């Protein structure tokens, strides 16, 4: 719950909508055992202002503090899209559960060394040969310390079908030469500060409510139906009945007629 509260303080408003019963599972691997510095000053937002809690922590009386803490726990719009422990650790599964969600998302990457990173993306995930992301994208280190590393546009590179020397995989950070986090194509490892480490857990949370999740599910079902439909289209078993032979015979006959 400490991590969730810190993110709710630091993230831009497009990721945070409060009210009602919390839809976030605090027992998930993302929200367990992540320490924070409770003596730190108020966290800046992605746009450079102070935290989105009002008033700021130093001027809060205990009653106000408790009200803000309870409100931060009730993020009804956060929906789990992908959990590597549940859905499997692979780029294919990551893309399957993350693409087509038309809303902002929070992604958590935890490494075997104990480091953990959060990337808040304000646009729909997509594959591209270029970096993408809007002005409200933010990258945080959440373990061993909670701190903002970078914010702004074009922080995400994702390409699982790269060719011609382009990197195949996922990069987080605006600098292609020194990304903050570089995830391998098979998602078994990641690099940070030039150090390669094992990737132990990845989670992606949708922050736009139920409507984008429903639309995403419908899109996935449609794609599955299309794939099944294509699998049912089979070629003729016998060569003499195939379209290829018909075309070859047609060409041969045309050449014979021309010669005659």
Structure characteristics:
ten-stranded antiparallel β-sheet, elongated, 260 residues, alpha+beta
Structural features, described:
This protein has helices spanning 2-10, 62-73, 84-87, 91-98, 210-232, 243-259; strands at residues 79-83, 105-111, 116-121, 138-143, 147-151, 156-159, 169-172, 181-183, 189-192, 195-206. The protein has 260 residues and is an alpha+beta fold. Strands 1, 2, 3, 4, 5, 6, 7, 8, 9 and 10 form a 10-stranded antiparallel sheet that branches. β4 and β5 form a beta hairpin. 31% of the residues are buried. Mean pLDDT is 75; it is low at 19-27, 31-57 and 256-260.
Question: How is this structure best summarized?
Answer:
The protein is an alpha+beta fold.
Mean pLDDT: 75
How far apart lie the N and C ends? Answer: 86 Å
Return residue spans where pLDDT drops below 50 for at least 5 consecutive residues. Answer: 19-27, 31-57, 256-260
What share of the residues lie within helices?
25-40%
The main sheet comes to:
10 strands, antiparallel
| Order of helical and strand elements | HHEHHEEEEEEEEEHH
Which descriptor suits the 3D outline? elongated
Count of runs of 4 or more consecutive helical residues: 6
Task: Please indicate the percent range of residues in DSSP E strands (runs of 2 or more).
Answer: 15-25%
Q: From the helix content, strand content and strand pairing, which structural class follows?
A: alpha+beta
